[in-house]
């Protein structure tokens, strides 16, 4: 029962990856971007002739977004039996930190509620952290 909350982290992050993360601005005002479409969009941007710094930023962003479903898969695989595995903690903390950074980026763009996809990944990070907190032995 103590790891029951942690079971939700992986599925929440996977679902959040396919839900809207951002809305376009300017010419892309009507577009909604999910994690999946952002990976595709950054792949299209990599085809442009960008400077070294811009190319590294686009590649880093793409890898950071791609690691969300990978970390979620690790959470789903390791939560039940292999919580001692280092990949469990690394993937869980990655989801938590990524969600906080994504929420902060959204707040910088304009104060509003985070889009549903970011909120789901944030919920996954909270579920992971709550599951860790619940699994620690209590001291009297």
Write a structural description.
There is one protein chain. This protein has helices at residues 9-17, 35-46, 52-78, 86-109, 116-135, and strands at residues 20-23, 32-34. It has 140 residues and is mainly alpha-helical. A two-stranded antiparallel ribbon has the order 1-2. The longest helix is centred in the middle third of the chain and has 27 residues, at 52-78. The mean pLDDT is 83.
Comma- or semicolon-separated keywords:
mainly alpha; 140 residues; two-stranded antiparallel ribbon
Main sheet: strand order: 1-2
Tertiary shape: globular
> What count of helical segments does DSSP give?
5
Q: What percent of residues are in strands?
A: 5-15%
Note poorly predicted spans: none
Oligomer: single chain
What is the string of SSEs from the N terminus onward? Answer: HEEHHHH
Using DSSP, what is the number of strands? 2
Secondary structural class: mainly alpha
Rg, Å, rounded: 17 Å
Q: What composes the largest sheet?
A: 2 strands, antiparallel
Give the rounded overall mean pLDDT. Answer: 83
Tell me the distance between the termini: 21 Å
The proportion of residues forming helix, as a percent range, comes to 55-70%
